[in-house]
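hey m, so remember when u said the tokens were messed up on ur end? i reran from scratch. heres the input so u can diff it against urs
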Amino acid sequence: MNNIEGILPLLKPAGMTSHDCVMKIRRLYQTKKVGHTGTLDPDVVGVLPICIGKATKVAQYMSDYSKTYVGEVTIGISTTTEDASGEVVETKDVNKPWSKEDIIALLDSFKGEITQIPPMYSAVKVNGKKLYEYARANQTVERPKRKVRIHRLELTSDLILNETSNTFSFSFEVECSKGTYVRTLAVDLGKALGFPAHMSYLKRTASGPFTMEVCTSLSELEEMEGVDERVKVLRPLDEAIAHLPMLIVDKEVEQLIKYGSVLQEEKGLDEMRFTVYNGQGECLAIYQKHPTKAGLIKPEKMIWTS
């Protein structure tokens, strides 16, 4: 079945890289045209949208989605990786718990636009080399700051003072923009309290419109009898680009779109980027305003194939 296309909202297990998941999906769907959107760290479980076939063409537009996570912060211990998988860097006993009101106020102070420095153990590139490659070689480099947005950040548990380890922990739910490192958010929450900290647990519960409820696990896919059954759990690629404005064209313009033509801009069309559909509900392309020629639009990504 070489014409398989769609989006698989995968429930990624812990212990696998996002690339591992892609390799497994290629085997299960017997196709090479597979890609993921938005890397999840190996220890993180949760929603990982996988694009298959023609749907790989829209993967870049899915990276703009906000993501939702549930996680746990442990105050009193920091690690090399900013999560529970790393080696301990610093400890500082927490002997007195903060109040619930204190923590809610702390979380509220991180809402909106914030500045982050990516962790050394991350795939961000500096001088053509990934940060984790420097980290594994015991090298440190200056990391570029980035602006991200925290749309929502809420306390979701009781506050726990562990008298054995002298640590303090609580759970949270966060909805954030692309590029946000939740590990770093956990560390920064600790810094604001004057303590080392790390993210002790993390699960992605949503990536754009794809939630845990529509996800399929690798074990469920393996139990299905053949590719025909596995295709049934794929979502249409339209769901990935539903956040973009839509332009529906008649048959005459449809032919021009299929040729990838540069066209006159539609009156009243103010959007920089939009999807183009024919009257039968088929997505033909993603168009954008021409960057140098006013009043014209040009294809940014062709979806239709002959």
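this time it looks ok to me. The mean pLDDT is 92. if urs says something different then somethings off w ur setup not the seq
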